[in-house]
Automatic annotation (TrEMBL):
Keywords: Disulfide bond, Electron transport, Mitochondrion, Repeat, Respiratory chain, Transport. Residues 1-10 have a biased composition (Pro residues). It comes from the Eukaryota. This is CHCH domain-containing protein. InterPro entries: NDUFA8. GO terms for cellular component: mitochondrion. Its main location: mitochondrion.
């Protein structure tokens, strides 16, 4: 008896890979030749508006998420409590504005206090599609330059 043949890597019409060793591996290495690699990004990778204030893109918000969680907690809790009491969106607009003001004010403060580290971290988050694991070095530098405080 001969052994049965191994199944093909793709099952009938499915695009899923059958074996984990055949899945593409994501490399954390940064190529010095890659012009978009975070290490080679320009110093002002955080998008800013005409007045120089940071634009709250997803990568900027993700990079500042720990700071936002601590500094804007009272505003967020008040907003969530309002939404819990009354699901009518009109009733909580002012609480939502307070959350937005807090976040925008915090982003401006962080960008003024440690622009280089914030830009590097937000740029890394942008490059790696908001995957924290790939940006730990930039995260550490950012949190050392701008410690999380209330």
């Amino acid at each position: 008896l001969s052994p049965s043949p191994s199944p093909p890597p793709f099952s009938s019409g499915s695009a899923r890979l059958a074996s984990p060793h055949l899945r593409p591996q994501i490399s954390k290495a940064r190529s010095p030749r890659d012009p978009l690699a975070p290490a080679a990004m320009s110093a002002s990778s955080t998008p800013v508006d005409a007045s120089g204030e940071p634009i709250p893109t997803s990568s900027v918000l993700m990079a500042a998420s720990k700071h936002i969680a601590v500094r804007c907690r009272p505003e967020n809790v008040a907003f969530l409590n309002c939404k819990k009491k009354d699901p009518n969106p009109d009733k909580c607009l002012e609480k939502g504005r307070q959350v937005t003001r807090c976040v925008l004010s915090l982003l401006k403060e962080l960008h003024q206090k440690c622009p280089k580290e914030m830009d590097a971290y937000a740029g890394c988050m942008y490059y790696f599609t908001n995957e924290f694991d790939f940006c730990r070095k930039e995260q550490q530098a950012f949190e050392e330059a701008c410690p999380i405080s209330e």
